[in-house]
Amino acid sequence: MTALPTTVAVGLLFSTTGPDAALGREGPAGTRLAIDEINGSARHDFTLRAEHRNPQGVAERYASMAQDLVERAGAHHIVGCTTSWSRKDVIPVLEKHGATLWYPCPYEGFECNEQVVYIGACPNQHILPLLDYVLPRFGVEGYLVGSNYIWGWETNRIARNIVEQSAGIVTGERYVAPGRRGHR
Predict the structure, then answer these.
(1) Cα–Cα distance, 87 to 161 (Å, whole number)
(2) For 25-175, where are the alpha helices, taking DSSP H only?
(3) How many helices (H) and strands (E) does the chain have?
(4) What are phi and psi of 6, to 5 degrees?
(5) DSSP label at 13?
(6) Which of 24, 45, 52, 101 has a 20 to 30 A CA-CA distance from 30?
(7) Are 127 and 155 in contact (CB under 8 A)?
(8) CA torsion, points 55, 22, 149, 171, in degrees to nearest 10?
(9) Three-state DSSP class for 96?
């Protein structure tokens, strides 16, 4: 019987710089806090070692960095990715190596993969309760706004279906490029 390694690598795949930095800085901080708590416990016969890679918000870097975490750092558990695009790009790497991604961010749903543990909320956990509250109080006519990205499209698709099922109408939709604030 093979003994467990005394140190286990855990990959952190978050953009702590670049356009996703505001979201990406919180993930490693929380993961390191959890690792420190686990390592501080006498209950375990191993320690965890964080191996962080920073794709700098460049979606095309996530897959190669996930591969590096698995092959070079020996991390078979990766915590990270803040966008659906980055999550989808690392899935083939995870499948190839039998690794697991712990995805902590909200996601649009409509995806299930045995290599991914979806921790974040999906739209049915926030858009349905919101529309259950809004439609009876403010009417069933609405205008949908979202990011021109997977999250905005899928969330508004659900909202559109709920509004229409409530005998309402969607008067229009507007999608804005991610990162553009104050765009009119």
Answers:
(1) 26
(2) 26-39, 62-71, 84-97, 127-138, 150-165
(3) 6, 7
(4) -80, -25
(5) E
(6) 45
(7) yes
(8) 180
(9) helix
Name the residue with tokens 């765009």.
183
Q: Distance between alpha carbon 103 and the CA centroid of its chain, in Å?
A: 5
Residue tagged 């795949």 (tokens): 13
Please give the model's pTM, rounded to 2 decimal places: 0.80
Measured CA to CA, the distance from residue 145 to residue 140 in angstroms comes to 16
Of residues 155 and 23, more confidence is placed in 155
**How many CA within 13 A on the CB side of residue 109?**
13
Mean pLDDT, the chain, rounded, equals 90
Name the nearest CA neighbour of 11 among 60, 71, 91: 71
E strands along 88-147, which residues? Answer: 100-103, 116-118, 141-147
Bridge partners for 51 per DSSP: 11
Provide the pairing of β-strand 77-80 with 116-118.
Answer: unpaired
The two three-digit tokens of residue 105, written as one number: 């961010």
